[in-house]
Amino acid sequence: MAERIGVYPGTFDPITLGHADIIRRGAKLVDRLIIGVTTNPSKNPLFTPEERMAMVEREVALLGISNVTVVGFNALLMKFAEKQGATVIVRGLRAVADFEYEYQMAGMNQQLNAGIETVFLMADVSLQPIASKLVKEIAMFGGDISRFVSPSVRDDVVARIAKTTGTLGDY
Predict the structure, then answer these.
(1) Active site residues
(2) Where are the domains of the chain?
(3) Which of 3, 57, 109, 133 makes a 20 to 30 Å CA pair with 140?
(4) What is the architecture of the domain spanning 5-125?
(5) Residue-wise pLDDT tens for the chain (171 aa)?
(6) Rounded distance, CA 21 to CA 124, Å?
């Protein structure tokens, strides 16, 4: 029987507890899960692709999951998935707005390669509101992000914002 390979793509800027939940659960569905850390031209990342990959690798190691690897890519998702030998794309859903976007993307991806299935995992109820963009915004204004990210990611975000802006917000 062929090895089942899945790809969980994202920018992971930064990786959140919601991402970690999807990684943990997605890894149970396949023999090997590849976390594809990518760039997104419509987003303004806080961390470089290399920093994000290192952050994801560190967080995956903390999860203690042995069938997960982290790979950077800057290409069409389906081309990346094909190159990895993947038969599954894993995507996390938080809300209806996510579903509408992901549904459209899954349809387009199916047109590009009908042999690769998209699997949607609902975020844990307690993690549904977490979004990397909101985590960064909260941190920029000095808010506590420790309920949304691991302690080491919290430290990375706080340090980067302090370095970038020279201060944390004091509202």
Answers:
(1) 19, 43, 94, 132
(2) 5-125
(3) 57
(4) 3-Layer(aba) Sandwich (3.40)
(5) 789 999 999 999 999 999 999 999 999 999 999 999 998 777 789 999 999 999 999 999 999 999 999 999 999 999 999 999 999 999 999 877 788 889 999 999 999 999 999 999 998 888 888 999 999 999 999 999 999 999 999 999 999 999 887 655 543
(6) 7
